[in-house]
Amino acid sequence: MKQCFGKIDLHRHLETSHRFEDVFELSRQHKLPVLSLLTEEQIKQLFRLPQKPLYWNQWYQHLLLLRNAYHSLECVKELSKRVICDAGKERIDHLELRFSLLSMTSAGLDSNFPIPTDFFSRAHKIIEKIIEGAAATKGPVPSCVRLICSLSIGNKYSNMLGHLPDLLIPHVSCIAGLDLILNEEPDWKELSRTLSILREKFRYLTIHHWERDNSFSSIKILDYKPDRLGHGIRALFYPDVLDKIIDNNITLEICPLSNLLYREALAGLETHPIADMVRLGIPITINSDGTMYGQTLHDNFLWVRNAFGFNDKILDDIENNAIKARFV
Predict the structure, then answer these.
(1) Among 3.20.20.140, 3.40.50.800, 3.30.200.20, 3.90.180.10, what is the CATH number of 8-325?
(2) Predicted model pTM
(3) At the N or C end, where does the chain have fewer CB atoms within 10 A?
């Protein structure tokens, strides 16, 4: 396989791209809650590639532990910088890095919901620290880094919907696009109102959907005219959805090795559906999702080549899809 494959990563999460060494070091340096009480081996265990697929909730418990790193705003800055530098070492040329603003903000607050009064102040500081971290990178780094704000719209954050414009619009010059995560049915009226305001300021939208079995599914999300879909591998179960994806030329952000981690992702499928998507002419891209288990973007390209016999022409087409779908 040509070494040039794997230069554009459109779907990489900040939270799932940390390294054990960084989290361990910073947990001691900043006396981070929970993490500083774990042994070196206990933290290392969070970064070990599972021997068999996890249930999503099992993996999510690991993520909740790691989010304790965001209690320190300086850690947010330092971890953001290191994740971008790691992408440079991978020889990533164009990186679109997602950060889960609401989750990162609440992880750094001791209060429980309803949302405390200092939530908004801290959310602005989280964004500022990520931007500072991106600006502080040195050495080989991607020539283009775009920050994508991921917004989990579920029951926990349902009361945040109406506040999102005030929270995000002040940072419009530094955020390239929005990533809507819909795992539960939202208040459609409020979501429509909020998105109509945000999309006047933010040009690009991607929506996390059709990733896991037994999760919320609705063709309504396509009415919001997303530029891309995060994952989308289970759209194959819904012919009307597939037709609309193809008719509207919506690009899918496929993260093959990540999909293999979760039992619910490929449930009911004999194998990963990426080959079927290529055959159907759906514009797909290959991405990392995250690198915490040591799997790079290039590893994802290598896996689909070995698993499905994709030749250089197919991989070239996939890379060209990424070029066209960039949020630039």
Answers:
(1) 3.20.20.140
(2) 0.95
(3) C
